[in-house]
Design brief:
Helices cover 6% and strands 40% of the residues. By secondary structure, it is mostly beta strands. The strands form 4 sheets. Strands 3-4-5-6 form a 4-stranded antiparallel beta sheet, with helices on one face. The protein has a 3-stranded antiparallel beta sheet with strand order 7-8-9, with no helix packed on it. It is globular. The two termini are 31 Å apart.
Amino acid sequence: MKLNDKFEPLASWTIPKQILDRFKPMSNSGGSWGPDGRLWLTGHDLGEAYVMELPVAGSELRWIATVQLPDVQGQGIAWDRSDPRHPTFWAISRPNRQVHTFSMPLNSLQTPAAKGWQVLGPGNFRK
């Protein structure tokens, strides 16, 4: 949910079912807006971060990529932007009581082409 300075809702989005299924049997554990403008999410169980983008239309976030996080069970994540040239992703391994840092592949993550209909011109559409 996006809030204004008075904590009033401005916009909200939902997480795709495919991601919710990956959170099972628990739930979403952490989320942090990355320096790439994307929302990075983790669950409690799998060592993965799910890279999401805001939808062009509608309310469901777009799943762009999954990034493996070895030895991380998703307990709390954050971006360190103190060095804009080298942002660092922090994640916690709760069972091991360790904090891990990662350099994420920000430049190699490409937004997939939108699925659905393309408008080619007046009365001219392609799926």
